[in-house]
Amino acid sequence: SKSIGTMGDKPEDAPHNCPGTESEEAGKASACAGCPNQQLCASAPKGPDPDVARIAQRLSMVKHKVLVLSGKGGVGKSTVSAQLAWHLASRDLQVTHSH
User: Fold this and answer.
1) C-alpha dist (Å) from residue 81 to 4, 55, 65, 85, 89
2) Residues 32-54: pLDDT tens digits?
3) Which of 47, 49, 65, 95 is most buried, most CB within 10 Å of its CB?
4) Structure confidence at residue 2 (pLDDT)
5) What are phi and psi of 10, to 5 degrees?
6) Contact present, 32 and 41 (Cβ < 8 Å)
7) Distance of CA 58 to CAs 27, 79, 85, 88, 95, Å?
8) In 3D, which of 53, 59, 24 has the Cα closest to residue 9?
9) What gap in Å lies between CA 24 and CA 87, rounded to an integer?
């Protein structure tokens, strides 16, 4: 899938009359016809993520956070995460791992 940069809730390469990714019309409106993001917008969940508050609460006691991510698979995210955790733990630092 293609990564899309956004300006507000409208992809940068969206048509001028784009209803926005949060709209119930996202991917379905006539302005969406031919847009490279049409399928992505139509299938994306709408509204705020219900897990955000729970995640924020769980992370509130974590002093330092390291995020290892990539938009592509097979680039070594798990390897980097495991090696980093091993190294930090070897220095007697508390390390937790979650997906």
Assistant:
1) 26, 19, 12, 6, 12
2) 888 888 888 888 777 778 899 99
3) 95
4) 40
5) -115, 125
6) yes
7) 34, 24, 19, 21, 14
8) 24
9) 47
**Which residue bears the tokens 């097979």?**
74
Residue matched to tokens 């409106």:
29
Around Cβ 54, how many Cβ atoms within 10 Å? 10
Tokens representing 7 are: 């300006």
Q: What is the pLDDT of residue 84?
A: 93
- In angstroms, the CA 41 to CA 56 distance is 26
For residue 40, give every residue at least 6 positions away whose Cβ sits within 8 Å of its Cβ, in sequence order, or none. 1, 2, 4, 27
The answer to whether residues 11 and 21 touch, using CB atoms and an 8 Å cutoff, is yes
Does position 4 have pLDDT exceeding 50, yes or no? no
The Cα angle at residue 8 between residues 2 and 14, in degrees rounded to 5: 45
